[in-house]
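Entry:
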Amino acid sequence: DRGAALRVRLTGGAVASASVEQVLNGANLMAIGDGSAERWELFQFAEAQPVSPRVYDLSMRLRGQAGTEAVAPGGWPAGSKVVLMDGAPQQIGLGLAERDLARHYRIGPAQRPPSDGSYVHLVEAFAGVGLRPYAPAQLRVLRHGGNHLASWVRRTRVGGDSWSGLDVPLGEARELYLVRVYAGAVLKREETVGAAAWTYGAALRASDGVAQSYEIHVAQVSETFGTGPFA
C-alpha cells in the first residue's frame, strides 16, 4: 500500500523505519483493529516518520498479512486500535477442539493479583483465523460454445514462499471449493468442486433462470476451519 500515511499514536515505546528487505523478512509487524476478537488486520510498514512525541506516520505498508486480508477494509477509521507485534504480545495457545468456545480471561498488571480492581474480565471465543484458507486468485470466466468455463488459482497458507516446486502446497486434507452463482442479490446455485475449475453450462443456466449477467463467487473450503473468504 503506497497510499497516504497511517498516523498512529503510541502509549509507549517507539518505531523506526526498515528497509524493504527487512520488511519482507518480518520486520515492523503491527496489528490494527476495532478491539473485538475477530476484527484485526496484521500489516508491516517500511517507513516511520516521527510527527510529535509518540506520534508517527507509517507508510509503504504490506497489508493483510497472515491471512487477515479477509477482514482488511479499504481504510480503518480514526480511533482504531494498533498494537506493535514486537514479541511482547504472546499468542494464546488453543487446541483445535477449543476453537469457538467461550473462555474467561482476566487481564491486568502482572505485579498485582487478579483480584485487584485494575484487572478487566472478558469472555471471548476465538475462531482461529490463522487456519482460514485464502481467497482464490485470478478468477475468470471464458465462453466456449454454450458453456461458461470458470477457473481460478489456488493459494496456500503454508509453505508457499518457495519457488522450487511445481505448485504451492495444498495445506489442507483435500482440495475443495464452494462455488456460488448470484443474479443480483439472489443466490441461484451452490456447488462444491474438487478442482480449480467449474463449467456453468447452458442447461444449468436455463434451469437456474440465469439469462443475462450474473456473478460467480468461489471460496476454498478447509475441513479444519470451514469456508474461507470468497473471490
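The longest strand covers residues 40-52.
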